[in-house]
Predict the structure of ATPase AAA-type core domain-containing protein.
Amino acid sequence: MSLEEAVKLIQVHERARQGRVRAQLMLQIRRKAEKSLKPSSVAKQTSEEKAALRIQAVWRSFKVRKFVKDLRDSEMIFLGMKRIEDYDLIWTGKAEKILVERDSLKKGEAVRFQEASALTYEKIINYEEQKMKEYYEDRLRNYFLKYFKATGKLPDIPKDEDGGSEAIDFNYFPRHEDDSKQRKSPLYGTVPKVGKKRSKKSKKKSGKTEDKASVKEVPKKLLQFQPSRTLGDINASAQRYKEQWLEKDLRQKSLEDSKYDEMLLIEEKRKEIMEDIRRAVDSKMRKQLDILRAALERDLGKKRPRKVVRLRRGGRKSKKKREKDLTPDRTLESLVEELATYGIIRPPKNIEMADLIGEMKFVPTKNGKSLPSFRDVKQAFIEMCLLPLGSKEMRLNAPFLRSLLIAGPRSCGKASLVHALCNEVGAVLFDISPQNLTGKYPGKAGLAMLFHLLLKVSRAVQPAVIFIEEIDKVLKKTSKSDRGFESGKRIKKDLPKLIKSISSEDRVIVVATSNQPWECEQKALFAMFQKCLHMGIANYSHRYKIWTEQIRQILTRERCIAGPEVDITALARITDGYSSGSIVRCISQTLSERRLSKLPYQPIKAAEFIPELSKLEPVYKEEMESFISWSQKTPLAKKAQRLAKTEEEKNKEVVLPAEHKLKNNKQKKKSKNQIKKRL
């Protein structure tokens, strides 16, 4: 054996020995780790607070990692080391896959739930229908016998609208002796009176004293808020959750397999079947009651009394005037086609609420003499118009709004809000602006036909928005010699009638815009429109956001990147006094197709926007001052001013007695000291 072969053999054996030692060491480490992971019998369970802290720590770490990753990706995109399309396509593809999977799961589970509900319905009808019918019939028959024994008469079953037999108190039976002293009741026929009669003089005196006491005790409030109508529904749903789902273990095998609670489903279906059977039994027992009454009258030889029709003082019946249908023989399709051909019904512009960019005001106003920001106006518009038109429950429970006025300078986003509302809710847009009505539906008969079609079609295709642009042309203060506003003035008389005819059940709203509201007749304006939104020009933060978002949207659409030469802060400062619409127009005109084609070798600079900006007209200071002065003269602003004055007076009344008390205490101390010195 040579020397080299001996060295190689020794090396192989040494390496094998080291490997065996290392394997034993790793085995010991692994066993120790497994022992530490196993829960000991003495160890206490983690409390809810510790578990919550662990969950929070995991979530926060994930959130921070995601934020850092987004920052890194945005930096890579800015440096040109990563494409925007690759970054967007990855996440859009993932989101689309998740949505498709979620929709397929929803559809499958919905089909399973419908099949299960149909099976439970059939089972309950097959096994429990006869027992339910016998229960309701026996209950009503026993009530009829007891009532007849107590009064000698047969009772009445309330209508289904009033609750039917569920509204009957089966433990209440009036007596024979009190029949002459009883007053009529809508459910049972009679209810005894409570209390003694009072003379007219005592009533007058007590009424006067009560009025005086109420005047003294209850202070007058200028702004009174109504109680919430949705709070009761929220509390009821929370109570139902506590009763049904709070103490239920959702990790049961039955719930995981079926994805619904079988006991709850059986209870709901049983309630539906019981309600249907109760109504059927009520109608059957009403017929039996009529037969029994006729038999009793035949035996006693009496005739049924006729219903007395109460008349008014004039002797005529009280009937509401019904609107005449001017188009009884025409179909809805023909009416919609007519309005569409005349341009009254027109498609809204392709604008969504997310496209309307706004920002809050970060600088406080001086003495409140300024208009709200676009973001605040947008939020108020969503709460007043979009949510009630979007759902029937919100329309019925939210404060009822028939009409809304949006006042602001030109091209600040008033009409865009209306178009976005129509797109979000899927509403039909009826445009009756003065510009759109020129030469259409001439004369009084034509105008009556127009408003009749508006009401009829808007109720049929609701949700609907009736839009009036430049309402100041309709309600403008003009003399007889002034002409040119005839198309707007002709709808001035019929427009309030149209607004009043909208009921709370109709998801229809009238929205008007105005550039010069101070030129309108103020009484007619605020009598016609219930609420008013004031819009101003864009502030610095709003302008900065418009510049950044609009440039980014155009460049991402063309798959380009803006260079560092675009100084957006300078552009936002230069455009002070310009409206948001004029800024958007300037960006779209500057970044034309020809200019975008040169972006790869010629980046955009801020100076390129100035020539197009100089062609646009800003909103002057005098116009904004007139808007602010008009907004302070509105009824709501006057109420706020009165409320502020009353609060100031109350604060003064509270402060003055304290000052007088301090003065009196000082005088008393001085007099005591003088007396002590004399003594």
